[in-house]
């Protein structure tokens, strides 16, 4: 039998749902992704992001080809706002990151990544493991407190 339901919604689930809501702002035609960066103890949000075009450019993809839509990834947008100076950050992403985002996550001192769904290419997860970033596929309480 599994772990009993907590009395109130865990902060991990709160931040994952926040990332899911941010993904709804995405203008990417193929995959909407949202991200939230927090302190390790989950007491402060340091940055948020969703995938889309650069500020001031049209709110649309540059093209229809996967990997060439021209959207900035949600992880990039969140990490730009969070900065690299805070050590051992935690990140919540609606989909596991691509390799390039994984490398940015490593260089921005993120120590743990929670993701809701696994992206079609899992190379980013292997990159995070090589960079000693802990990853957690987090869907434990997705259907509760709704």
UniProtKB/TrEMBL annotation:
Cleavable signal peptide: none
Keyword Hydrolase appears in the UniProt entry: yes
Domain spans labelled CMP/dCMP-type deaminase: 10-136
Family matches, as InterPro entries: CMP_dCMP_dom, Cytidine_deaminase-like, dCMP_deaminase-rel
GO cellular component: cytoplasm
Record key words, sorted: Hydrolase
Gene3D superfamilies: Cytidine Deaminase, domain 2
Protein name per the record: CMP/dCMP-type deaminase domain-containing protein
Pfam families linked: dCMP_cyt_deam_1
Native organism: Candidatus Dormiibacter inghamiae
Single GO term (MF): dCMP deaminase activity
């Amino acid at each position: 039998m599994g772990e009993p339901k907590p009395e109130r919604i865990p902060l991990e689930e709160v931040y994952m749902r926040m990332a899911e809501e941010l993904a709804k702002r995405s203008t990417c035609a193929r995959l909407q992704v949202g991200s939230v960066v927090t302190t390790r103890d989950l007491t402060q949000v340091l940055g948020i992001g969703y995938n889309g075009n650069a500020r001031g450019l049209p709110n649309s993809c540059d093209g229809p080809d996967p990997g060439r839509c021209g959207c900035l990834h949600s992880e990039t947008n969140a990490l730009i706002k969070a900065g690299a100076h805070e050590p051992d950050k935690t990140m919540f992403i609606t989909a596991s990151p691509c390799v390039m985002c994984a490398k940015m996550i490593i260089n921005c001192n993120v120590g743990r990544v929670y993701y809701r769904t696994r992206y079609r290419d899992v190379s980013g997860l292997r990159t995070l493991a090589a960079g000693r970033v802990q990853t957690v596929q987090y869907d434990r309480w997705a259907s509760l407190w709704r």
